[in-house]
Predict the structure.
Amino acid sequence: MHFLNHGSFGATPLVVQEEQSRIRAQMEAQPIRFFVRHLPGALSHSAALVAELVGARPEDLVLVDNATAGVNAVLRSIQVGEGDRLVTLSHVYPAVRNSMRAIAARSGASVVEVRLPCPVLDDAWLEELDQALVGARVAVLDHVTSATGLVLPIQAMIALCRKHGVPVLVDGAHAPGLLPLQVQALGADWYTGNLHKWVCAPKGTAFLWAAPPLQGSLQPPVVGHAYGQDWRQTFHTLGTRDYSNWLSVPAVLDFWRSIGGLERAREHNDDLASQAMSLLQDGLGVQAAGPQQMRAAMAAFLLPQSIASATPQGSLELNDLLWEKYRIEVPITPHEGRLWLRISAQLYNELDDYRALLSALVAIQGE
């Protein structure tokens, strides 16, 4: 098969899966010793390694299941009242949009989505964001957009929030492993990101970072035994569950060191994605979602209407056709009445994978 959708769920190396199985076996062999004696220190160790990876202090970061859980933890911990405005961008991830809507509906607040045009041709949208932030209660901003794979100017957006005194939560679901990341230096109030995507940790491995003054007010979606204690204990003491995904963090970082490091992989993946986009643009005459400087190892382009109807049903039918007939797995997403196809590039991909996609799309267009 041609798997061009690493960005959705990642891919866990076999050696890491084996370590996760070993940890599960250790847990089942002596649950009391595992949960009571071994687990607290092991979780702290994994969290400290993640903090080092993303440029943060260990005391400012906790592990969570995914970026959606991190977003919910922050939004549910903020006092939002009637008439407040929650600001985000039109490319916001659907689960995050729903989280904001739920908070707004409960409190009488409203959600304001600043339109990020696609394709992005200039920075005029930043002026609209600047205006929308006046008097806002909180902003939730993407570091990398999901459907369109755009790397947004996060520091410029955070600076606008600072200008207006608006607390800002960065949804960095795709950023760890995809981009060089120094979370603490960004100047945000909160930052959450997934490790099961581009870092290739087991599914359900993510982090939430918070600036020190805000940590005491944060509560996880599930309140457990550690309520009222150190915020890290509060997030890491969630009752009986399988913690093997979080405890496999050392193994996945060992994996990357064994093959030359994440930075080397990023450079390779960025270059492959760039070559792939050139191939697809030349072959189809399609328009990319944004310029080269807004892309990394993911890139999206606008599908011609001759290939599929620009509806949710059209995207599902094309996705199924590509898989069933051509064994190509690639995400196709409706956005503002048009269909966008997003490719990913990871070490297991080759340029022939994208040639296969091009041939398939040309064949479908000609039918």
Q: What stands out?
A: The domain at 260-366 is CATH 3.90.1150.170 (Aspartate Aminotransferase, domain 1). The chain has a mean pLDDT of 96. The chain has two domains: 14-256, 260-366.
